[in-house]
Recover the amino acids of this structure.
């Protein structure tokens, strides 16, 4: 059975769910947050050490202002109401991506990271204003400037995910099969599961079924 140390998730399908059920994309994001909370709990139950959630990409700025504002309000709410409980559960929160939001949100994010920095039980990485190509270009720039040898180990040390093992498993909900500029380097050997359900419909049972399948895959990392 494969050990499962790190799950990454592209939580796709909120907009479609919201339009279908409530005639509002934002309602889909609200429902998506409920799934986030369920999946965090299930990840803890499964004793998985790292969970990385793609919450906002560098390309998501193209969306209408009202949707962007709604998403950031949800996030502010999440941070304000949940950080004490995450901290009590010994969970560390890390943001990957550039923190260039409103002053209030930047402050909340920094505060949440600082408060939980020494927690050891589990780590949630929230990818926010994250783009893998941007991350890689920055890492190459830093590596060149440092005059260090150009090799895999040094490049990894300049990624925003430094000190985080690569995901073993990537799940994308929403019935689309693409990576959308997410962890392009880090996913090199991850097992990928594309799930038809939209993110708000994704349940603990769906998650556990994928975990079970993952554990039984023969992972050979290029070997035989
Ligand atoms: C993709 O679905 C989802 C997002 C861009 C946002 C994800 C946000 C949440 C799940 C809620 C907030 C989360 C946190 C952690 C506070 P989409 O809108 O692209 O769906 P579509 O493909 O149906 O349009």
């Amino acid at each position: 059975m494969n050990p499962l140390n790190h799950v990454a998730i592209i939580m796709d399908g909120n907009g479609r769910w919201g339009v279908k059920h409530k005639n509002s994309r934002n309602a889909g994001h609200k429902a998506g947050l409920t799934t986030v909370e369920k999946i965090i709990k299930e990840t803890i139950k499964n004793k998985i050490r790292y969970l990385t959630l793609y919450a906002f990409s560098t390309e998501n700025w193209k969306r209408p202002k009202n949707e962007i504002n709604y998403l950031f309000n949800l996030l502010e709410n999440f941070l304000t109401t949940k950080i004490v409980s995450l901290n009590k559960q010994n969970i560390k929160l890390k943001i990957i991506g550039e923190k260039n939001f409103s002053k209030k949100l930047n402050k909340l994010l920094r505060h949440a990271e600082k408060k939980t920095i020494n927690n050891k039980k589990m780590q949630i990485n929230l990818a926010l204003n994250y783009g893998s190509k941007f991350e890689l270009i920055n890492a190459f720039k830093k590596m060149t400037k440092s005059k260090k040898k150009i090799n895999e180990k040094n490049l990894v040390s300049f990624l925003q995910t430094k000190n985080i093992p690569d995901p073993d498993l990537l799940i994308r909900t929403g019935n689309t099969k693409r990576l959308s500029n997410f962890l392009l380097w880090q996913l090199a050997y991850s097992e990928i599961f594309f799930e038809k359900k939209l993110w708000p419909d994704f349940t603990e049972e769906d998650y556990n079924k994928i975990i079970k399948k993952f554990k039984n895959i023969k992972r050979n990392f290029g070997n035989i």
The longest strand covers residues 122-130. The domain at 6-130+168-215 is CATH 3.40.1180.10 (Undecaprenyl pyrophosphate synthetase).
